[in-house]
Write a sequence for this structure.
């Protein structure tokens, strides 16, 4: 198998990587580009911790070969805000105690920010539906839903 | 700080130190750390629950591009998983890598180190195991029946407590009291094993340093347990090891007796290279220890006025293939098996039983939670059979300050009644004035 160059936009900046066929977007982000905010909880599409946006659509980066994102725009948790300048959603997670062990939090923020993009005023039920593929094993779902509602209000 | 008043913390919201990092993905977990020239390690595990190991063949694995080295039982300086020796409990019967027998599906037999994770997976899959499969047992009572396959090396499927085949508590004379009781209510309760299922898989990175020490990044919940274990297993002085931890992506007790660090450290010492060893999701679910499965039989002697005069509990706790923390969990179980209730005659037998299942160990209140599950089901059953309000049944028997527990300790800090009263209020349950007048400091006069 031969590695080939794949170019895409990462958090607004162009990047290019050499990747073997079927290398996942997740391993390229974490291992080649140092974007470790995207987590690896199961690497089989079951936990949602690796959620990123591809052209604005929430995507499980562990299931996507990096070649599939060629010439597309990838946004990771690092592109959504920083500790110094958190997004409204990240601030709501922080202030609303919506994190426990924190391992699911980047995926939760990624899926929730995509939800608020397409639906600025989601009901609790719609939020629950959006989070259905993201596991919080610490069972902290209620504060996560509350933080998303809080962020939606701040952003409206 | 200057204008902060003393005693003004409670009642206000305070920033959680790590939350900003969690929400922005900047918190560093173990798997987020990597080093140049880092190798990956994967385990070769038994595909069957019980077998004799006749041979391990690495010849095909060694031909995988990127293969670096392998480890077997012969490479481990003190090949005993020592978690119980650290708290003074024997037997030290579990091996770090199995040498002669495997006793559960997934037990590690060898490790493979390679340049990349893919190569490590491929090489591990190409290690050929020559196993002679043995009969296996998966049920606690079947394991204690005559003729059952023997799991342990000492010849029985139970842990021996100070010469006894089970952990026992005797208080009053429960069989005699049961004979005198108006009626007997029995129950059989069964719990399944429970996996902690942290979203972050167990793992570590061991990095050799120029000064001869090894730095180990780990997500253990018990960093000094892990450090001491590694020092003992590798027979190196503890000051040769520097353990870095503190960030755990979910533990729930499942990362207390972690066993990834000794092997990663050994491989790092052997190769002189950083070694990453992180469980796959499948390993996390299958191999890491669980909460034990329990089968619990309760026989209660009860008078028609609803007084429980005797409680006899026989409990079988499934240790799985090895002890880990389960013999200790059984002792906690025995202490709590009569419940937070004052019953004058109690008899408890808790059997720590070995089977060919994944070893069980620590998980949130282990030993106690299993007892509470069965006991509270039993209390509801009694309430139904006697048509008594289940709140009243519990509050009448709730232990009070000054009551002696079956294990001979006098209660000093009872809060059960107060907790139940608060719970009733929160749940909107209307309790009678008699119950509302109860207190942990007053047994009161039975109506």
């Amino acid at each position: 198998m031969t590695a080939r160059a794949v170019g895409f936009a990462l958090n607004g900046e162009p990047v290019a990587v050499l990747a073997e066929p079927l290398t996942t977007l997740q391993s390229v982000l974490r291992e080649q580009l140092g974007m470790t905010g995207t987590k690896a909880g199961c690497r089989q599409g079951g936990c949602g911790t690796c959620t990123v946006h591809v052209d604005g659509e929430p995507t499980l980066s562990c299931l996507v070969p990096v070649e599939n994102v060629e010439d597309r725009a990838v946004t990771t948790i690092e592109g959504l805000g920083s500790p110094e300048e958190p997004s409204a959603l990240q601030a709501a997670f922080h202030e609303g105690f919506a994190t426990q062990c924190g391992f699911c939090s980047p995926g939760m923020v990624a899926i929730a920010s995509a939800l608020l993009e397409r639906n600025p005023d989601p009901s609790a039920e719609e939020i629950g539906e959006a989070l259905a593929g993201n596991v919080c094993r610490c069972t902290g779902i209620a504060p996560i839903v509350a933080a998303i509602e809080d962020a939606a209000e701040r952003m409206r | 700080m200057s204008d902060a008043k003393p005693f003004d913390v409670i009642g206000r919201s305070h920033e959680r130190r790590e939350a900003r990092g969690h929400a922005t993905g900047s918190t560093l977990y173990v798997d987020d750390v990597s080093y140049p020239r880092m190798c990956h390690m994967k385990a070769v595990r038994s595909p069957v629950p019980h077998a004799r190991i006749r041979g391990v063949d690495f010849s095909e694995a060694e031909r995988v591009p990127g293969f670096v080295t392998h480890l077997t039982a012969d490479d481990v300086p003190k090949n005993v998983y020592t978690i119980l020796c650290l708290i003074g409990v024997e037997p030290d019967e579990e091996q770090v890598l199995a040498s002669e027998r495997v006793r559960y599906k997934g037990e590690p037999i060898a490790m493979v180190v390679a340049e990349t994770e893919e190569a490590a997976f491929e090489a591990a899959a190409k290690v050929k195991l020559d196993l002679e499969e043995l009969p296996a047992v998966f049920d606690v009572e079947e394991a204690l029946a005559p003729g059952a396959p023997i799991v342990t090396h000492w010849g029985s499927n139970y842990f021996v407590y100070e010469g006894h085949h089970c952990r026992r508590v005797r208080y009053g004379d429960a069989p005699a009291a049961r004979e005198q009781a108006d009626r007997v209510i029995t129950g059989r309760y069964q719990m399944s094993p429970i996996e902690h299922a942290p979203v972050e898989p167990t793992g570590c990175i061991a990095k050799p340093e120029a000064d001869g020490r090894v730095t180990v990044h780990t997500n253990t919940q018990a960093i000094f347990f892990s450090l001491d274990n590694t020092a003992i297993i590798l027979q190196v002085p503890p000051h040769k090891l520097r353990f870095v931890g503190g960030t755990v992506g979910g533990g729930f007790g499942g990362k207390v007796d972690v066993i990834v660090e000794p092997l990663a450290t050994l491989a790092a010492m052997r190769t002189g290279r950083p070694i990453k060893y992180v469980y796959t999701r499948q390993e996390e679910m299958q191999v890491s220890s669980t909460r034990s499965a329990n089968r619990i039989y309760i026989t209660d002697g009860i008078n028609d006025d609803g007084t429980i005069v005797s409680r006899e509990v026989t409990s079988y706790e499934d240790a799985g293939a090895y002890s880990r923390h389960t013999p200790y969990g059984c002792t906690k179980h025995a202490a709590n098996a009569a419940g937070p209730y004052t019953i004058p005659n109690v008899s408890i037998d808790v059997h720590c039983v070995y089977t060919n299942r994944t070893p069980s160990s620590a998980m949130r209140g282990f030993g106690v939670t299993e007892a509470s599950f069965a006991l509270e089901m039993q209390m509801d059953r009694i309430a139904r059979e006697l048509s008594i309000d289940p709140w009243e049944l519990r509050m009448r028997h709730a232990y009070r300050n000054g009551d002696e527990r079956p294990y001979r300790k006098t209660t000093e800090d009872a809060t059960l009644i107060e907790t139940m009263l608060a719970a009733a209020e929160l749940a909107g349950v209307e309790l009678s004035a008699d119950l509302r007048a109860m207190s942990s400091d007053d047994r009161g006069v039975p109506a």
